[in-house]
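Example 5.3 — LysR family transcriptional regulator
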Amino acid sequence: MKINSENLNINLRHLRALHAVAEAGSFSAAAAALGIVPSALSEIVRQIEDSVGAALFDRSSRPATVTPLGQAFLDETGPLMLGLDRAVTRLRQTAGLEAGSLSIGASPSAISELLAPLLAEFMRDHPALSCMLHDDIAERLARMVAEGQLDLAVAGRALRSPDLRQRPILRDAFGLACPADHPLVAAKEVRLADVAAETLIGLDPDSGASQLLLQSGAVPRALLQPRITAYSTIAQLCLIRAGLGVGLLPQNAVTLFNDPRIRFVPLTDLELWRTLYLIEPAQRPPSPAGRAFVAALERRFGHLAEAGE
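Solution (predicted structure tokens):
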């Protein structure tokens, strides 16, 4: 926006002085409202009048009255002053978490036991805030954090990026997700060889869980080529609950619904862990709401304050 250089002699202090005199009805009352002496207020108004080359108040009357030129200027700048006051109020409210919004990304398995209880407490403490929760796989969430669409995310590790900071929160072991009436649920010991490949329900290959299974080297190739593939953990668990098969998943993912119809079965010959990370922007200052929620996470998980990369 181009600003006329001649307007630079009139600033916000001048405008507030003009509007204060007009609203208070006199220089003395306006000076008291502004917390300055009348002579200082008279000098401020005189500076404006010198800048425009015309009187804005008629001082021959007692009290001084606004001239037609001054009234026209007040009418034109009045909406600007109101807009500025509203903007400053919103700024203060947002900074103080009296208003604003929080955008969080999360892998589905991070929501139920980790994020939901903390978010409930956070929203209770800040009732004027609104919140949007976006669930997806780690890479897409990380991209949204880097691009400013999300304040933060809690998910598996995403690819390293100078635009992101990733701090570990907690980890859980992989095992087998089974329908509650599946024969393996009652077995004393279950190994990978006991899992029928044709019953396996897999997850989107781009998901963090699938990538960990592919990279582990411990999972037989037959178990990496599922007959059924689900896009999300929620869809995968729904299929398992319906009895369509079983799945290789981290324990927190299996207990996402806390549904007794889905059971987590440890695998004695699979030593594979999934770590959940707090994903934050590294190059962009956090929003006030984002900063406050990260602080709540740090209080809940003390090691976050020391960890990082």
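Remark. The two ends are 40 Å apart (CA to CA).
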